[in-house]
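Input:
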Amino acid sequence: MIRRLAPLALLLATAAAPPAMMDVAPAPAASPLLLNSADDARLVCGERVDVAKQLACVSWLNGAYQIATRYQSLSPQLFPDSCPPAGAAPLGRQRELLLAWLAANPGERVSPALLAYRKAMAAAFPCPPG
Amino acid sequence: MKQLAALLLLAAVPAAAQPADNPVAMATGAHLQAICGNQEARDRRIICLSWLNGAAQGTGWFKPRDPAQTPAFCPPSLNFDLAAYRSIILAWLAKHPADLARPSIEVYSRALAAAYPCRKR
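Output:
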């Protein structure tokens, strides 16, 4: 999943106050707000104070969830589908599930954030066989 | 930020119960237009680009369950550009105002499928 997120990176780079001294501008791709890795998801979705991170987390979950409801995985072992009952997966619940799954699977922190999300949701809401 | 309070409230509410008129839910084409079309408000830019980011990260790994409603799209590269996606969707909505009432994920798919059609095999 190679991605170019310049606009988001640029936007989110303005979210934090700049350091007092900075010789080299930080690479925008390093921002956890891009939600590239599972560890980014842990940092951003675990945030309880920073408004930008909270907005980024819930909105990212919203987009990923809407795709999950209308699209089927071509690689279920890597990106499993999930089947939450109607009303069982509000975005706040999804955030809790993702954080709990990441806490239980620390070895997955280097995985893509979307992979962690799909696995967390599938663990909580597995689809019936067949 | 009023948007945060609204979004966090929505985060605790099942999607089916979310108020249809709150654009931060990003549930319809009208919401996409209201949120992504506003480049002045920083919270709306975050919501728009993060929603697009969540939707787009799996591009190439999933197929539509109902291609008539959410057609497949094939961007020239998975090195995608969220600002370009945003522009494509806004332009689509400007040309297809009936889609303002469609679910946002359908608008997303239809706009990108028109911009990046898949070759028939």
